[in-house]
Amino acid sequence: MDNSSVLEHPVWMEIEQESYQLKLDYELIPYKRDAGFRAPDELKKVHSLGRSPLLELEDRETGKKKILAESGYIFQYVLNHFDKTKSLGNEDSDKSEEIQYYLHYVEGSLQPPLLIELLLSMVQTAAIPFPFSYITRKVAEKIGEKYSRGEVKNQFDFIESQISKNCGYLVDGKLSAADILMSFPVDSAFKRQFADPKQYTATDKWLKNLKTLDSYKISKNKAEAYGEEC
Ligand SMILES: N[C@@H](CCC(=O)N[C@@H](CS)C(=O)NCC(=O)O)C(=O)O
Questions:
Q1: Percentage of residues in the chain with pLDDT exceeding 90?
Q2: Quick one: which of 79, 80, 86, 178 has the most CB atoms within 10 Å?
């Protein structure tokens, strides 16, 4: 990526060169959600699906640009092209495959029930006039009860067991891309009370531990500087 495009933010500029997990320079470009909690139309100018995250890459020598979508694919690309020392991957091929598995697992299995819970919570608080609100809330409650709540529990039980048997991380007792990509949905689920950190003590400890990383703090500072709550 082109160094000249890095934004000047003195608060974290001092330490960022040494502290990035992969020692990469990047610029964060925020796209604010609209009143309906959807991505703004401008995001469609970057990628026609208009969803985030997206990764824009530019080759310093040739000027060739690439736009990557899908968080798991973006992470896989970053590992393949920028993690030459495998600091977020693994030298062991079985362990490396486990990391790849989590890059798919996040969007394929964990996010769907969390998204359903989010939509149901929006239905519960939507400004719908009585008596329709009574019906919509009952339907939302039933869907949560019959499917998403149990499925969130299923997923969190799985995550808890994996972290417990891998010495506090998802793969091989050490930090990898799997932990980083998984931290976002797990953190959101705890914050939105879709899962209770007190019931998932290993997962809670894992998340708190990730939050002590300099690289985590730097990205959090960047996002907060743009008005994002982290
Ligand atoms: N499977 C996609 C999901 C992308 C996605 O849904 N992103 C959300 C933000 S986390 C979004 O852009 N939402 C705005 C919208 O749907 O309008 C990925 O992993 O990147």
A1: 63
A2: 178
